[in-house]
Amino acid sequence: MSNADRVVFPEDGLTKGDVAAYYETVSDVLLSFIADRALTVERYPKGIGDEGFMQKNAPEHLTAETIGRHEVPKDGGGTTVYPVVRDREGILAFANLGVITFHVPPSTIEDPDHPDWVIWDIDPPAGRFDLARAAALALQETLDSFDVTTGLMTSGSNGYHLRSRLDGSVKAETVAGLARALAALAAHDHPSLLTLAFRKSEREGRVFVDWLRNAPYSTSVSPWSLRPRPGAPVAMPIAWAEIDAIDPNTVGLRDAPARLEVDPWAGLERLEMGALAQPVEEALRENEIVLQPFDRFRS
């Protein structure tokens, strides 16, 4: 570890060595979410007081034995060579490069078009944790009505994430479409609280239910990942019963390892999402909800 005493979180006095020690402590559980996935990492080589950057391509100077590589063609030509972590050494190699945050897609490199997770990102107006809680509970109510069991996670930032395990039998396009439809049904039931409006100017103080994390190489923050904010907050799985007690950004680097003993997502079964297609379509029709084609780059 080079420059282990470099202060990375200046308001908290946390060093690069502290970050590496945290990632070593949680490496086993972190690997269950990031191993064999095409990673995007967020690096702050001089600490979060300086500008950081996102990195999708694997660092060339690290050997393939330490950081694997997964090559994906780009639209319009060229490729992205995503880094892939397989073990604790890979995590620590990234920590040595100043990585603070790991962002992961919902599927593995072995089968990128069949996700084993579906994710909804609750995105409230800045600082409105009360709305984030209300929105998460409202979405959970709709998902429960379709027997979709979800795990709750603090984002380490402004909102919460809801995640469901999948059995990998359904293609990503279908999963994303069903995730969008379920979010639309929740917004229909709670029109003053939830919205699917992508543009912030159209949200009118409501909470955006971001269903767009479910394409093959779209990413969301990994559970147990640090975020580059004061307090060194962690994107942390929590129990639904804890939602009133835990803000999205208050479990930090110092407190998170104590939560390793209990897995609040231990009971999450793998969902066969294809079984939802007919009842979800019927619910959309009954509520006269029509989902128009969506292109995030034109919206």
List keywords for this structure.
alpha+beta; 14 strands; four-stranded antiparallel β-sheet; single chain; six-stranded mixed β-sheet
Layout: helices, strands, pairs:
Blueprint lengths: L6 E3 L4 E2 H10 L1 H8 L5 E4 L9 E3 L12 E6 L5 E6 L3 H9 L2 E6 L12 E7 L5 H17 L5 E4 L5 E6 L6 H18 L4 E2 L11 E4 L9 E2 L15 E2 L38 H10 L13
Parallel strand pairs: 11-12
Antiparallel strand pairs: 1-2, 3-4, 3-7, 5-6, 7-13, 8-10, 8-12, 9-10, 9-14
Helix pairs in contact: 1-3, 4-5, 5-6
Q: Can you characterise this structure?
A:
The mean pLDDT is 95. By secondary structure, the chain is of the alpha+beta class. 41% of the residues are buried. The protein is globular, with a radius of gyration of 19 Å. β1 and β2 form a beta hairpin. The strands form four sheets. The protein has a six-stranded mixed beta sheet with strand order 11-12-8-10-9-14, covered by helices on one side. The chain has a four-stranded antiparallel beta sheet with strand order 4-3-7-13. Strands 1-2 form a two-stranded antiparallel ribbon. It is built from six helices and 14 strands. It folds into two domains: 7-104, no CATH class; 117-214 and 267-286, 2-Layer Sandwich (Alpha-Beta Plaits). The chain has helices spanning 16-25, 27-34, 88-96, 129-145, 172-189, 277-286, and strands spanning 7-9, 14-15, 40-43, 53-55, 68-73, 79-84, 99-104, 117-123, 151-154, 160-165, 194-195, 207-210, 220-221, 237-238.
